[in-house]
Structure formats: C-alpha cells, structure tokens
Amino acid sequence: MVIRRLVLVGLLMAATPAFAQETPTSPPWHQGGATHHKFEARIAEIQAKLHLTAAQKPLWDNLVLVIKDNMRRRVEHFRAMASAPPQDAPTRLDARLAMLKEEVHGVEQEKAALAPLWSVLDAGQREILSKAIAWHGHHAKMGHHGAGASE
Known about the structure:
It is built from six helices and two strands. The chain is mainly alpha-helical. The protein has one domain. A two-stranded antiparallel ribbon has the order 1-2. Strand 1 (133-136) and strand 2 form a beta hairpin. Helix 2 (9-21) packs antiparallel against helix 3 (34-50), helix 2 (9-21) runs parallel beside helix 4 and helix 4 runs antiparallel to helix 5 (89-120). The radius of gyration is 16 Å and the shape is elongated. The two termini are 19 Å apart.
C-alpha cells in the first residue's frame, strides 16, 4: 500500500512494453510517437482530476519531469538492447543487473520528487493519485485496470 501511494512508477511501467515494441526507426517517445501522446494524455487526465492549486502545480511539474527523464532513459536502454549483437549469458546478466540498478535509482528519484507534492495534497487528491495507479504484479498501469479505472 505504501508503494502504491508513494511511487509513481506506474506512469513509467504502463508505457514501457509499448515503447520497447517500437521500431528503432520510429520517432523517440519524447518526440511525438503514438505512445508518447497516450502518456501525455494520461498525465493531463490525472492532473485535471487532481485540481492542483497554484502552489501544488510546480511540485507536480517537477514530478512529471523526473518521470519523463526516467522514461527516456528506459526507452534508450531498451532500444540499445534491441540493436545490440547477441551476448553470452554472463554479459546479459551483467546488463540486466545494471538496468535494475538504474531502475532502482529512478524509482528513488521519483519517490523524492513525489514526497513534497504528497505532503501538500489533501485527502481527496491523495486518493485520486493512489487510485490512478493500478498494480498488476510488478507492472503498474495508470488507471486502465483495477482501482480507479472508472474515475
């Protein structure tokens, strides 16, 4: 429950499989690809539901910036993996370990960016933000399934 409230990695994880499936020649997600537009629309939808105050808006913007930066790095990593020559098992495990360490660092950054926003959200806003994240195992989707999907 704490993770569900404090980590907005759902924004990232929801889009990761689609990003990984884009071809290396498709536009990067941050340059207008279809998945980028869905991601931006979902962020705008959540923001609209939150009815952020003028004081909360910069904190939200900072969180979104951190999330987008983490997503950009994740997409770049997946694209690099897709274009890399085949590797032996130890090398693949080293690459996976490096990716997981980077992912942990990204989640820590998101949690740090979320903390100041979370502290100024009212109970209703916290509920909206919490319901926007629907967890499925270790993958999260932003409100497309599970709790909060019908808000």
